[in-house]
Amino acid sequence: MNSAKQLRGEYEGWAFDSQFEKGKAPGRIEVSGDRLCFTAELGGNELPLRGLKVTCGGARNRLVFFRHASVPDTSIYTSDRGILKDPRLASRHELAMQLRKARGSRLHLWLVEGVVVAMLALAVAGLIGMRRPLSRNVVARIPADWEKTLGEAVYSQYAAMRNEVKAPVVQADLDRLVLPLVNAIPERPYEFEFHIIEDPQVNAFALPGGPVVINTGLLMLAETPEEVAGVIAHELAHVMRRHGLRQMVGTAGLFMVVQAVLGDISGLLAVLARDGAFLVNLRYSRDFEREADSGAWETMLKASVDPRHLCRFLERMRKRQEDRAGGGLVADVEEAMSILSTHPGTAERVATLEEKAASISPGTSFRGYDLHYAVMKRNLNHSVGKPSPEKRAGTEDAKHN
Amino acid sequence: MQSTINGGPAFSYIDVDLEPGESVIAESDAMSSMAADLDMTARFNGGFFSGLLKKFFGGESLFVNEFTNQTNAVRRVTLVQNTPGEVREVQLNGDSICLQPGAYICSTPGLELGVRWAGLVSWIAREGMFKLVVSGKGTLWYGAYGGLLEKEIDGEYVVDTGHLVAYEPQMKLKLQLAGGLFSSFFGGEGLVTRVEGKGKVILQTRSLSGLVGWLNPKLR
Amino acid sequence: MIAMSADVQVETTTHKRGSGSVLRAVKRLLAGESFFLNHYTASGAGGDVWLAATLSGDMMTYDLQQENLIVQAGSFVACDDSVNVDMNWQGLKSVFSGERLFWLNLSGAGGVVLSSFGAIYSVEVDGEYIVDTGHIVAFNETLDFKISKAGASWVSSILGGEGFVCRFQGQGTVWCQSHNGPGFGKALGPKLRPRSA
Fold first, then answer.
1. Rounded to 10 degrees, what is the CA torsion of A74, A79, A81, A82?
2. Which of A369, B38, B57, C152 is at 20 to 30 A from A165, Cα to Cα?
3. Which residues from chain A sit within 8 angstroms of residue C129, using beta carbons?
4. Are residues A232 and A222 in contact, defined by beta-carbon separation less than 8 angstroms?
């Protein structure tokens, strides 16, 4: 290390030798023309350079050991690796090879370890990359019953703080609107339940297991029943593909997922139950949004409902958001809670849907809803703020739950 | 074979020096250090079924290790126990001794570790349903949690459950309530063992259930 | 620290005075030691400091003479100011030993105090010796150490409960402890009350 020391050929070290009281002693190593001398406080020894064996050893593989066949039970060693560059030693041809090997042996070790670490890192990265299929596997194992219970529990919590519009005339309108959509979804493990909640926020969402919520705000903004049908079809698509659970499992943590894959889903279920409230305003990933959009499109086509209305509705929403952007704190908060914030990438989605729209041949005929949307809105307006029939009858406990 | 018990009464361990050809059998994971050229082979603890019985009812391990010296010089193996405490060496000459679960550490090959029904008493006292009976000709080392006390009994004696380590096979154990009917019957703390007969019992000065009883309320 | 004279100065730092840095402290944290080191300096009249360890067992002192001692993290108690405490990466072999990944490297010259769980006994190695990984307290750097199986076959090793052991080769001393934490834990654990979630 110190070139001065190297010039002098002096290094600090130790020697194993039975002459020492403890069998070994610290001292000074000197490299001279034809030998390696070791001097301790009491005693010392020396090894001839001719026939010297240089090796690397020790627990960290960085000590340099010198041995000689003529004195098998003694050895001199040092932790000063500068000795490997000592000119007196290096000038000896037969030693040069050993020195080089000793210098390189550490590097070799580091390389091997580097490769193993890299492989481990790759394995971990691979596991993280496999998250999607892993979480899909896991969600597939969550029983539909459990999903229903979760969805209902979250819904009742949500609805307890709000008013549901239960006016029979509005309910009848809604039922007529959703019936073709629901029928267009053949195998459903869930019973869809549609609830209209009084809330000026433009929002609609579906919970795992079947409950679907539509806000009055959204209903008022829509202009045709097909637009509402489009939104509902989109939310139904989320439920059928279990996006809510998949999104939450995705954030539940890799360990939980791996555990669930290996058989024990109880930990995962516990996390989901605890975080169930987030399902109300879940922000789906763009991929899920895309999936739900194309699912909605399919359902609407199957139900013979004009899917282009969904596109129009989204476009209107997007314009509305643009207009209100920068409208201050209230507008920002509103925006954060609106359907747009939970459904990112609106412009993109509109573009994708418009592309799909282009593939519909102009002559296709769709079912018309036997529904005057303006009438429905009027009915809705009248029902908002009025207690529902059961409440009018006198049972007040619904609000106090 | 030379053996020394070192480590004082608190942390006893055994240094066994094996002559060429000799071996010693020890329970799983009892080896703390040994000469590199000793042979170590795992065997079933007395045969497969016997081993299973011992594992599930006797609290012993399914496998034991046999350390054999196949070199031509003396070699050392250091054997230890799980709990801090004393270790005792006993020479058996055709007689036998009953050990509580977990007390066995190691022995010479001439000894046999058998399992025998310990009686309902033992099971209620949470001492296990079977007791380990060591018999044959050879040396046995067993250990405890805490120090070891030896007592010659002639007649009757009362011992707290959890403190009994070993006893001679002719002794009878009977369960008894330490105090009244309600003194923690279900917790087992109120139970003591009445030892009857003529022979020796070995006790430990600490008990794991004592430590556990102190720790448990502190765990949330 | 159990007790000390009133006129001993204590300074808590992340590093040894005069050397090291926060990085060193982080390395120590990884090794299982605490982030902080306490420096005790006696005033002119001298003073006493009484030190203890957490697990019951022996303590030993060792005089380092310009050499390296590799110590199990957790066994380190104290050292002279002239001794360097650093984390040691024993390479990937530690990963497979099931023991801690990192050990401490004590180097320089001065006194060192180590503790253990159980009694400490030393083994002078000249050739080869096997020590169960959970029972190593410290060893000289001059020894090569490899993680390997104890018996002749892997089956034997694992069934026999020994699993991985350390093979030391060369010349040097290994200090071993008669008990190990996980072993006691195994005896105690099943009896403890299960933690409520």
1. -90
2. A369
3. none
4. no
Give the whole-angstrom CA distance, residue B127 versus residue B11.
24
3-state SS class at C114: strand
- Contact assessment for residue A221 and residue A380, using Cβ atoms and an 8 Å cutoff: no
- From first to last of the 197 residues of chain C, give the pLDDT tens digit: 777 777 777 777 655 555 555 656 665 555 555 556 677 888 888 888 888 887 788 899 999 988 889 988 778 888 888 888 876 665 555 555 455 555 788 888 999 999 999 999 999 998 999 998 889 999 998 998 887 776 666 666 666 666 678 889 999 999 999 998 777 877 777 777 666 54
Cα–Cα distance measured from residue B29 to residue B106, given in angstroms and rounded to the nearest whole number: 11
Rg for chain A (alpha carbons), in Å? 39
Residue C194 is given by DSSP the state P
Give CA–CA dist A257/A218, Å, rounded: 36
Residue A92 structure tokens: 């000896």
Residue C52 Cα, gap to closest chain B Cα (Å): 17
d(Cα A239, Cα A299) in Å, to the nearest integer? Answer: 13
Question: Between helices A254-261 and A131-140, what is the axis angle to 10°?
Answer: 50
**Homologous superfamily, domain B2-218:** Mitochondrial biogenesis AIM24 (3.60.160.10)
Say if strands B87-99 and C59-72 run parallel, antiparallel, or are unpaired: unpaired
Q: To the nearest whole angstrom, how far is the Cα of C117 from the nearest Cα of chain B?
A: 9
Distance separating alpha carbons of residues B81 and B84, to the nearest angstrom:
7
For residue A378, the SS3 value is: helix
Secondary structure (DSSP) of A111-162: HHHHHHHHHHHHHHHHHHHTHHHHHHHHHHTS-HHHHHHHHHHHHHHHHHTS
pTM here? 0.61
* Least Cα separation, residue C2 to chain B (angstroms): 22
Q: Is A118 on the interface with C (CB under 8 A)?
A: no
3-state DSSP percent of chain C in helix, strand and coil, to 5 = 15, 45, 35
Nearest residue of A to residue C147 by CA position? A59
Rounded to whole angstroms, the Cα distance separating B17 from A135 reads 57
CB contact under 8 A, C160 and B35: no
Whole-angstrom Cα distance, residue B36 to residue C166?
10
ipTM beyond cut 0.85? no
- Chains near A with 3+ CB pairs less than 8 A apart are C
Q: Is the dihedral of CA A211, A217, A221, A224 positive or negative?
A: positive
Domains in chain C (CATH in brackets) are: 1-50 (no CATH), 56-191 (3.60.160.10)
Give residue A135's Cα distance to chain centre. Answer: 10
Distance CA B8, CA B31 (A): 18
Judged against a pLDDT cut of 60, whether residue B146 lies above it is answered with yes
Question: Is domain A3-106 given the CATH code 3.30.450.20 in the classification?
Answer: no
Q: Is A124 on the interface with C (CB under 8 A)?
A: no
